[in-house]
Amino acid sequence: MYKLASVFIGLLITIMVTINGALSKGIGDYKSVLIIHIVGLITITFLLILKKEKLNLKKDIPKYLFSGGAIGVFVVLFNNMSFNKLGASLTLSLGLFGQLILSGIIDHFGLFNMEVSKFNVKKIVGFLLIFVGIIVMVIY
After folding, report:
1. Which residues of the chain have pLDDT under 50?
2. Which domain, by its residues, includes 131?
3. Cβ-contact 139, 93 below 8 angstroms
């Protein structure tokens, strides 16, 4: 179930990056990021109201965990900038490769209070295949 959901997330991210990139091309990088996040705020507010959930912030949550929104602004901004110069395939491929590298580091060291999942040498084959694929995409 979670693997299928992850594939669906990948489809949604592709659609999102494409739509965001087109908006950015039409009105500019910074204004598009603002509009995208306002629409996101309206959407999640509507969903919270629909589900009748209250916003209860626990005091024992580490402060750095609230930085995801700021990081999200830069993710959208850099995706928009890259999309208009590199296209959807290369933007998403390079982004996913960056995610792959950092997620491997996070898993290996158990960063951000994650469960430790040591790096398996067999994963290098997958990393290399993806890297070679990206090189082919960049060249051709």
Report:
1. none
2. 88-140
3. no
